[in-house]
Automatic annotation (TrEMBL):
Matching InterPro entries: AAA+_ATPase (IPR003593), ABC1_TM_dom (IPR011527), ABC1_TM_sf (IPR036640), ABC_transporter-like_ATP-bd (IPR003439), ABC_transporter-like_CS (IPR017871), P-loop_NTPase (IPR027417), Type_1_exporter (IPR039421)
Membrane-topology descriptor: Multi-pass membrane protein
Listed name of the protein: P-loop containing nucleoside triphosphate hydrolase protein
ABC transmembrane type-1 domain span: 29-314, 744-1035
Chain intervals for the UniProt region annotation (Disordered): 634-657
Keywords: ATP-binding, Hydrolase, Membrane, Nucleotide-binding, Transmembrane, Transmembrane helix, Transport
Subcellular localization, as worded in the UniProt entry: Membrane
SMART domains: AAA
GO molecular function: ABC-type oligopeptide transporter activity; ATP binding; ATP hydrolysis activity
GO BP term, example: oligopeptide export from mitochondrion
Record Gene3D superfamilies: ABC transporter type 1, transmembrane domain (1.20.1560.10), P-loop containing nucleotide triphosphate hydrolases (3.40.50.300)
Residue ranges crossing the lipid bilayer per the database entry: 26-50, 70-95, 147-167, 173-192, 249-273, 285-305, 742-769, 789-812, 867-888, 894-913
One GO cellular component term: mitochondrial inner membrane
């Protein structure tokens, strides 16, 4: 994407606050004032310290108490001011940061949803959802309380230097010499952190794109055993993030260590030079005290700058991509100056010399000088080979793209002159791959209404249910919806709908829109024959008085079109009516012939005329009907072989076939009962009361689904309980065993860094005592005496600090980055191990899993890198500080420690607030991530429905809970934050008051007072700094719970469990008395223990029946995506549960109903069809593509097999995707080929060629095929055809035998005949 690719520089600082409202700006101004004032208070108090300490040596002990009382009161007042200032500033920073982040997220979602499709096609910077969740959080961290803390620290530093300059400019000038070096290290840290953070975020976004592909296509991943290969891809993406993270760690560590080195070296230089000035009588000793103390207080504040500065730097880097997306103006946009034509549109359409090529493949023309004119009210069908440009015309009509040359006219006006929203409102579409959103069926339907606003309390709530039901009855989906547990209020995510059911709901949604222009792109491709005919009638009725464009490969659906346009390579080859095109005997006539369903046995080709393609006659005289015995021979299977699967399996029962008898495997009545004719909608509608074969009394041998559940068979999943929160740190440590060397080194360096503060306090206290002595600087000192000794000590501490602080940051950051890489990899692999039913649950949708994976790992990383090091550092500081304090004055130490419980309680209070609010907002964050992910992934559906505003509102509503919790955190947690700051000032006041009393009692001296006070204050500051990471620790602890809940979860179908390994298989498949329901829909059984089927070795078995009858479910059970509640699925007489899962699936290959291609090259997609250890030559890939009739198309592309297919194959047509998927399945030459509507998206010619290739492969022997098809022409040559209805096989035999029955199958054939009227 050009806008994204050009972005290299971080966002300017002030631009981070671009989403601040006027109210937010006022809050930012107030918060800034309080933050600056808060930082200036402590350096200002140094003036009082200097005067007091300067007089302490000259004052009599009896007067010390009286002299210190004014200072104690000042400190109390200042402490109260700090309490108020810290509370107000933190509260306002958190609130305005959350407000801005909320607007930023909504703006990002708005920008993404309004981008043109070319932007999505060219997307190359990873997951949009991950950028939304993690990058906005990073920006929020940089513009909220951490920004305020940075301002406070800078203010404290500045105020310290101001006080120093006011007191003595000579000494302060020397201090300024080190400022450029401090600034240089700070700048380096900022730039380096921003750069490597940006690289790391880009790498993580690309890694997240891998996870989204896997989670959204988990069935394909499982079917082809792609887990390890995607794990490697994910690992490769994480490797880049790890490299950037390590570089950032080293740079940040060296910069921070150098920063501390310069700081301590400045102490050394300042103290040494101050002594020289006093010795030369240029300033007084008390002035050196004030300057030095103010400088130390100011400089010590810089310790807090790097982590907060790093947060701001990361925010600048993260905002770069966010703001680039938000600011990008889509190329296809509604101009406010455009005036809409009279509405509603008449429906006149014209393509005038249109040429077009997709932006990602500009050298591959799709449409070439295409011209045709459609009058209002006409129904025009577009037919032709896959990739001929049919669907592209639909996309140009909807202005997903604009033509390269020429014009698309609507009602005589160029489509580009229409307001975009208005234009799309005039168009209704049912696409080839119907998309339903994660909401109720009712809400999905209402998305298709003409209401411009679907927000609560508006049209969505006021709309009459009768209108919905009427549309659903027209689309023949009302009956099955009513049978769902919650009817129209059933969540799509909580139910398993068949492709046909989803498509009928999509059709009902289109009917509700009532558009002047209706586009049907393979609208009935996923429907069974009866439903297709009924829905076709509904669509024909809906097409009345409107312009309708139809794309269909199943030509029976467009025979009544007013005009048929035959396209090839983007040009019109033929056009006319159905009959006229047949009479022309051209391309269209050939397509019709290829879809002919033979109705007679081909004893002699010369005896068969062309009547078969025009009529539905009886059997020809040349073909004798099969005898009853021959039919029995063809369909009878050995009960002995079946019984080898399970000794307890009941013996086979006979299935009555009216006018014949052959065997199946569910009990039937011994009294023949004919099957009702199938001319009404009851049989192939969604009525469970359709005629079925009655069962005998033996039916109780098969336990109902409820009994199977009661016996302990797991058919659904329950939320996995979270492990105890108290042992999370320990479990993380155990998991981090490979990183222990980093942690040990980091702890050692943190120990050194932690010791710096109390040791600094000892030296500093001694320095203050030395300076406040009236005789300071008047005598000559040796190299290591007096001020020279202390200057040397500070220099030595500078060198040690360089090692300690650098080592701590580098070690813990490296450990965190390395562990995070392993953790993400471990979690991703663990997710891929879960059974398919796990991904059906509401909590485990694509957006939720992607968000969880990114956020949980990030939180744990922050605990390691930002919390653990400070915990060690604080612990060492506390131990050494308390020891020193007790050595110098145990009395004062005990008094000051009396304040510590208040400090602990304030920190505990802040932690508790963070913990409670984190638990409440976590669910909201996952939900919002799923909403955004779903909208981004299905952007074409969102755009064609004109529902961007609705999904923006839905996302806004989903983050409302999290927003509310954060605002509450601002109010309540800020009190603990303010108290933490204030208690430090109160502790100083208590220390001076008690110290002056002890001095007056001659129980301690001034040096003991200062050393004890400063060591305990450094310890208190450590506690205060540690409290800043409380929120990070709480979030990380919660994330660790979720992580270990996943790692502890045992998959119900574990791919790692050992099992029987079959080197080769014959391909014999048995289903015995299967009972099953989907885990997400336990109250809606698919099979009730009556589904039994035997598939002999080397045979092609076709399953036909209405949508939702369980055809695809049988393939899922064979693949062990699910396990039956009762009954047995067997391969070569081995229960599939006894086979190792990878071994079971290695003998199969699947082409699904909705083919999934991954965002990589064509060659890489096809290679995924082979086993991981399978060596595939280029010739093997080419051969598979030739068999799938896709090689010529691929060769015509500029990059050939190295052409990227785009996300979900978006750069390919439906037929092209399906042929690539077929090539992927054929590449491994599987023993068991599973074809679930494998040719549904193919044109007639491609279907015939591909079907012939599949037939040729199967004819070579040694291969079993299970085919599911609604287009019966593709399965008429199958060895066995099984009609499935109501969870059982009701007819089976070959094509001609079933035609003789004149039952279910025969009626289906009649309905698909192009020359028979219904």
């Amino acid at each position: 994407m050009e806008a994204k690719a050009s972005v290299t520089k971080p966002t300017p600082l002030l631009r981070l606050f671009r989403f601040a409202s006027t109210k937010d700006r006022v809050m930012i101004a107030i918060a800034t004032c309080f933050s600056l004032a808060l930082g200036a208070i402590q350096p200002a108090s140094m003036i009082f310290y200097g005067k007091l300490l300067g007089n302490m040596h000259s004052l009599n002990e009896a007067h010390v108490m009286q002299a210190t009382q004014p200072l104690v009161l000042v400190l109390v007042y200042m402490g109260t001011g700090v309490l108020v200032g810290a509370y107000v500033s933190n509260c306002l920073w958190v609130m305005c940061g959350e407000n801005q982040a909320k607007r930023m997220r909504v703006a990002y979602v708005h920008a993404v949803l309004h981008q043109d499709m070319a932007w999505f096609d060219e997307a190359a910077d990873g997951s949009l959802t991950t950028r939304l969740t993690t990058d906005t959080q990073t920006v929020q961290d940089g513009i909220s309380e951490k920004f305020g803390l940075m301002l406070t620290s800078l203010s404290q530093f500045t105020a310290g230097f101001v006080v120093a300059f006011v007191t003595s400019w000579r000494l302060s000038v020397i201090m300024l010499a080190t400022i450029p070096m401090l600034a240089a290290f700070g700048t380096v840290m900022l730039l380096v952190t921003s750069r490597f953070t940006r690289h790391s975020q880009n790498a993580y976004a690309k890694a997240a794109a891998v996870t989204e592909q896997v989670f959204s296509a988990i069935r394909t991943v499982a079917a082809f055993q792609l887990q390890r290969r995607f794990a490697k891809r994910y690992e490769h993406a994480l490797e880049k993030a790890w490299v950037a993270g390590i570089k950032r760690a080293v740079a940040a560590g060296l910069a921070y260590g150098g920063f501390m080195f310069i700081l301590f070296a400045t102490y050394s230089l300042t103290f040494w030079y101050g002594a020289r000035l006093v010795h030369n009588q240029l300033i007084e000793g008390t002035s050196v005290l004030v300057v030095f103390t103010a400088m130390v207080v100011g400089a010590m504040s810089l310790v807090n700058v790097p982590p907060n500065l790093a947060a701001v730097a990361s925010a600048k880097a993260a905002a770069t991509h966010l703001f680039a997306t938000i600011d990008r103006a889509p190329k296809i946009i509604h101009s406010p100056q455009v005036t809409a034509p009279p509405l509603p549109a008449k429906g006149e359409l014209q393509f005038r010399h249109v040429s077009f090529a997709y932006p990602t493949r500009p050298d591959v023309p799709i449409l070439q000088d295409l011209s045709f004119h459609i009058r209002p009210g006409m129904t025009v069908a577009l037919v032709g080979m896959s990739g001929s440009g049919k669907s592209t015309t639909f996309q140009l009509l909807q202005r997903f793209y604009d033509p390269t040359n020429g014009q698309v006219l609507v009602d005589g006006k160029d489509a580009r002159s229409w307001p975009l929203h208005t234009l799309r409102q005039q168009i209704g579409i049912v696409s080839q791959e119907p998309v339903l959103f994660n909401m109720t069926i009712r809400e999905n339907l209402r998305l298709g209404t003409t209401a411009t606003d679907l927000l609560p309390d508006t049209d969505m709530d006021k709309m009459e249910d009768a209108q919905l039901e009427h549309a659903c009855r027209q689309a023949y989906c009302h009956d099955f919806i009513e049978k769902l547990p919650d009817g129209y209020n059933t969540l799509i995510s909580s139910t398993m709908l068949s492709g046909g059911q989803k498509q009928r709901i999509a059709i009902a949604r289109a009917i509700l829109k009532n558009p002047p222009i209706l586009l049907l792109d393979e609208a009935t491709s996923a429907l069974d024959t009866q439903s297709e005919r009924l829905v076709q009638k509904a669509l024909e009725s809906a097409s009345d008085n409107r312009t309708t464009l139809v794309i269909a490969h199943r030509l029976s659906t467009i025979r009544n079109a007013d005009w048929i346009v035959v396209m090839d390579h983007g040009q019109i080859r033929e056009q006319g009516t159905h009959d006229s095109l047949l009479d022309n005997a051209g391309i269209y006539a050939d397509l019709v012939a290829q879809q002919t369903i033979s109705t007679r046995r081909e004893c002699d080709a010369n005896q068969i005329d062309n009547d078969s393609i025009r009529l539905f006659p009886g059997p020809p005289s040349c073909c004798q009907s099969p005898t009853r015995n021959s039919l029995q021979t063809q369909t009878r299977y050995s009960s002995d072989r079946i019984n080898t699967v399970s000794p307890t399996t009941p013996s086979p029962h006979r299935l009555h076939r009216h006018s014949s008898c052959y065997e199946s495997f569910h009990p039937v009545s011994t009294t023949p009962t004919p099957i009702s004719p199938i001319f009404g909608s009851d049989m192939y509608g969604d009525n469970d009361d359709t005629s079925t074969l009655p069962l005998s009394d033996n039916d109780e041998e098969f336990p109902p689904l409820e009994t199977a559940t009661a016996q302990g068979i797991a058919i659904s999943d329950t939320p996995h309980p979270l492990p105890s929160q108290w042992n999370m740190t320990g479990r993380v440590l155990v998991l981090m065993k490979p990183e222990w060397p980093f942690l040990i080194l980091g702890c050692f360096c943190a120990t050194i860094a932690g010791a710096m503060f109390p040791l600094h306090a000892v030296v500093y206290g001694s320095v203050i005592t030395e300076i406040s002595n009236p005789g300071f600087g008047r005598e000559v000192y040796g190299p290591l005496e007096g001020p020279n000794f202390y200057a040397f000590m500070f220099a030595l501490m500078a060198a040690v600090a360089l090692f300690g602080f650098s080592g701590q940051i580098i070690s813990f950051e490296s450990a965190g980055e390395t562990f995070t890489q392993r953790l993400r990899q471990l979690l991703f692999v663990q997710y891929m191990k879960q059974e398919i039913g796990y991904f059906d649950l509401d909590d485990n949708k694509v957006g939720s899993l992607t968000t969880r994976l990114a956020v949980d790992a990030k939180n744990v990383n922050e605990m390691i890198t930002k919390v653990w090091g400070d915990v060690v550092q604080f612990t060492v500081t506390a131990c050494i500080g308390l020891t020193i304090a007790f050595l110098f004055s145990w009395r004062l130490a005990l008094i000051i420690l009396g304040v510590v419980p208040f400090l602990v309680m304030s920190s505990a209070y802040e932690s508790l607030v963070h913990k409670r609010l984190e638990e409440k907002s976590r669910k909201s964050n996952e939900q919002s991530g799923h909403v955004a992910c779903e909208a981004f992934t299905e952007i074409r559906t969102v755009a064609m429905l004109n529902r961007q505003a609705y999904f923006e509102y839905k996302y806004d509503a989903s983050i409302a809970t999290s927003h509310k919790q954060t605002v509450q955190k601002a109010y309540f947690a800020s009190f603990g934050h303010g108290l933490n700051h204030a208690i430090t000032m109160y502790a100083i006041a208590v220390a001076f008051h008690a110290g002056s009393h002890l001095i007056s009692q001659r129980l301690m001296d001034v040096q003991s007072l200062m050393v004890t006070l400063l060591t305990l204050l450094s310890t208190a500051q450590g506690i205060n700094r540690f409290s800043q990471f409380t929120a990070a620790f709480i979030k990380a602890n919660r994330s660790a719970q979720c992580i270990f809940a996943l790692l502890d979860r045992v998959s119900q179908i574990d791919p790692d469990l050992e099992g029987l390994e079959l080197t080769t298989v014959d391909g014999k498949v048995d289903f015995q008395h299967i009972a099953f329901c989907y885990p997400a829909r336990p109250d809606a059984p698919i099979f009730r223990g009556q589904f039994s089927l035997n598939i002999p070795t080397g045979k092609t078995v076709a399953l036909v029946g209405k949508s939702g009858c369980g055809k695809s479910t049988s393939i899922g059970l064979l693949q062990r995506w699910y396990d039956p509640a009762s009954g047995t699925v067997a391969l070569d007489n081995h229960n599939t549960k006894s086979l190792a899962l990878h071994n079971l699936r290695s003998h199969m290959a699947l082409v699904g109903q909705e083919p999934v291609l991954f965002d990589m090259t064509i060659e890489e997609n096809i290679r995924f069809g082979g086993h991981e250890d399978m060596e595939l030559a280029v010739d093997d890939i080419v051969e598979a593509c030739k068999q799938a009739n896709i090689h010529n198309f691929i060769s015509s592309l500029p990059n050939g097999y190295n052409t990227r297919v785009g996300d979900k194959g978006s750069q390919m047509s439906g037929g092209q995707k399906q042929r690539i998927a077929i090539a992927r399945a054929l590449i491994s030459k599987p023993k068991l080929l599973l074809l679930d509507e494998a040719t549904s998206a193919l044109d007639s010619e491609s279907e015939a060629l591909v079907q012939r290739a599949i037939d040729n492969i199967l004819s070579k022997g040694g291969r079993t095929a299970i085919t599911i098809a609604h287009r019966l022409s593709s399965i008429q040559n199958a060895d066995i055809i099984c009609v499935v209805d109501n969870g059982q096989v009701i007819e089976q035999g070959d094509h001609y035998s079933l035609l003789e029955l004149n039952g279910f199958y025969a009626n289906l054939v009649q309905q698909q005949s192009l020359r028979v009227d219904v």
